[in-house]
Amino acid sequence: MAMENSVDRGTFDEVMVPCYSPMEIIPVRGQGSRVWDQADKEYIDFAGGIAVSCLGHCHPAMVEALTTQGNKLWHLSNVMTNEPALRLAKKLTQLSFAEKVFFANSGAEANEAALKLARRWAVDNHGPEKSEIIAFEQGFHGRTFFTVTVGGQSTYSDGFGPKPSDVIHLPYNDLEAFKAQISDRTCAVMMEPLQGEGGIISPTPEFIQAVRDLCNQHNALLIFDEVQTGNGRTGDFYAYQGVGVTPDILSTAKSLGGGFPIGAMLTTAEIAAHFKVGVHGSTYGGNPLACAVAEAVVDIIAQPEVLQGVKEKELRFREGLEQINAKYPIFSEVRGRGLLLGAALNEAWQGRARDILVAAGKAGLLVLVAGPNVVRFTPSLLISPEDITEGLARLEQAIASVFTSS
Prior knowledge:
Layout (H helix, E strand, L loop, with lengths): L8 H7 L11 E5 L2 E4 L4 E4 L2 H4 L8 H11 L12 H12 L5 E5 L2 H20 L5 E5 L8 H6 L3 H4 L9 E4 L4 H7 L4 E6 L13 H13 L3 E5 L13 H5 L5 E4 L10 E5 L1 H4 L15 H14 L2 H24 L3 E7 L2 E6 L7 H10 L2 E2 L1 E2 L4 E4 L7 H21 L1
Parallel strand pairs: 3-13, 5-6, 5-7, 7-8, 8-9
Antiparallel strand pairs: 1-2, 2-3, 4-10, 9-10, 11-12, 12-15, 14-15
């Protein structure tokens, strides 16, 4: 029997587990900040695969790294190490506070490693009663059972039976609530240095500094989830560098591989020592293919002119969104840093973010949402000024169509 090869959006409903509700369009190829669907319609990509495609689609350096490594060595297992993993780890330690790196395949896995390491560190140094993990409402840390429990959105974690315990959620930016909760029983505090899924919420400088100080005071580890904010997304290589607060453990993924799945947990030598041989692991983590691609990505993003370019592109986006809003006032503010931006809908437009996303798709533009009230933009860090201008024109067209039909 010959296998039927043609597929369309209907095929999704036939064969896929229904935990997603994808758009009707199916992109088939991409170049830079543009993609084309099955009907060869062109779209400008302001979504970047949810802050992943940091060099756009099919960047020559990534294609070259993948092809070269693909002809050499794909996989070994952690019984041996490999050159791309060692080179990438070395670069990540040079670009951050970290001295040691653990490789995984995703942000959730990097966060899982971070949380397990923090608990193990606390048990070894202070005893089993120091187990409390403080996290924040609306935070997002992945979909494994531990990370989704630490994440601050109960809709994602409820209904799967008993959760890992001793996890406390507090409001982000509420320093009084934080002071009241943290104690010598606190093992770790996990936070995004800029909340992504929760609506693109920046921390106040006082809050993030006080969290660091109180962690020091109570011998608790500070874990920064930089899965979305990392690798140049905010205009600093890691966002912590822009807020002037250094964590003890940092997780990174998404943009790290530019579209090839890879995650990493970064930490100090002292803390890393608590992951002795056999305590944690990953079959594919640190595989040569992923690390070779990520190394090519990091080499480009780490260039000062690329990081500076992110800050310049942020201004271009903010100006363009202001101009659209002057004609069609639907946004209350533009939040975020670098190319992790969220346009928050005003009172009259609450709950309509997905309507904008759908209208944008029809106008040939890919955007995201961050909850029901924020339209999110996480394009390629290398997106050209022309593509920003054209994308904003398409966004205006989309907003005009929703505005006039309301």
